[in-house]
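Module 6 notes. Inverse folding takes a fixed backbone as the condition and produces residue identities as the prediction. Think of it as a translation problem where the source language is geometry and the target language is the twenty amino acids. Below is one complete input and output pair. Work through it position by position during the lab.
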């Protein structure tokens, strides 16, 4: 009796798998459309690549300069144009991202100082998307994206009052860079969901120079971002 029951269970599972494998693909005409719109929800980790000046450790009270990263959030709009069977042109704009990074100055003979660098970026990027064929299930495919990016920080602190007792380190509000990532298109009955992991890098030095030692001890700062997004189209 138990053998018969197990045979029935295995038969049902086999039929379900076979149905899944050969089922009609979802949104089967979706990829033939020229233009698609959507939105994205993103989580990010902001980082700073900091280059200190050669004389940074000349002061015997200076121990090190560290960077602390924090998780952030983002929300944006997607405009996708089909170039061909395997290629898309994708514009991500506007994308609002909230990012925080801290600079931590540590000294041998005095307490450490922490300087917050908080940003509210409005980003725009134009990406080339290369996508694989749909897998056997017909409802998933992988893709890669890459392209240029422009960002403007609406919460830049370049105009903030600064002093020795009120340390401020600012980044230039307007920056340019590039981004690249990999993702998975998942086709549901009424929409497409695309989890995506992406890195964003800035061209050139983004440090805003002032006369105070907290800035003058730094040669360059290059903002970076690691972002995990959920695209809905």
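Target side of the pair, the amino acids:
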């Amino acid at each position: 009796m138990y053998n018969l029951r197990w045979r029935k269970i295995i038969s049902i599972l086999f039929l379900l798998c076979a149905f899944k494998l050969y089922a009609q693909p979802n949104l089967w005409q979706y990829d033939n459309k020229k233009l698609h719109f959507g939105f994205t929800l993103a989580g990010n980790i902001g980082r700073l690549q900091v280059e200190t000046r050669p004389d940074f450790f000349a002061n015997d009270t200076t121990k090190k300069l560290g960077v602390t990263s924090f998780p952030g959030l983002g929300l944006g709009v997607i405009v996708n144009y089909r170039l061909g069977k395997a290629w898309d042109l994708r514009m991500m704009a506007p994308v609002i991202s909230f990012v925080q990074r801290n600079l931590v100055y540590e000294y041998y003979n005095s307490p450490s100082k922490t300087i917050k660098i908080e940003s509210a970026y409005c980003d725009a990027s134009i990406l080339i998307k290369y996508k694989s064929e749909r897998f056997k299930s017909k409802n998933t495919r992988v893709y890669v994206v890459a392209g240029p990016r422009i960002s403007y920080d609406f919460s830049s602190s370049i105009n903030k009052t600064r002093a020795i007792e009120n340390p401020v380190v600012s980044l230039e509000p307007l920056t340019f860079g590039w981004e690249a990532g990999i993702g998975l298109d998942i086709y549901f009955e009424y929409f497409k969901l695309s989890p995506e992991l992406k890195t964003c890098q800035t061209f050139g030095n983004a440090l805003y120079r002032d006369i105070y030692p907290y800035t003058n001890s730094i040669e360059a700062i290059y903002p970076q971002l690691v972002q995990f997004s959920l695209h809905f189209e």
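Reference fact for the lab report: The chain has one domain: 25-232.
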